[in-house]
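Hey, I'm writing a tutorial for new members on how sequence and structure tokens pair up, and I'd like a real worked example in the thread rather than a made-up one. If someone can provide the structure for the chain below, I'll link this post from the tutorial.
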Amino acid sequence: MLGLGDFSVFAAYVLCILSAILCVVYGIVNWNKGGNVSPEEAAEEARWEAEEKKIDSELSGAGGEL
């Protein structure tokens, strides 16, 4: 059978190829699907960023080294 020696080797090759094809198809189908971000999540993200900027400015003002 194509010089592969055993059916299990042939099956492993076929399954690897099929899994790669499946991954490509999944990626194409889900390419531009953005996550739905709720207003609460967006507000929490903004709070985290503001807190991070505040901490960074305090650290840079304290000694200049991070």
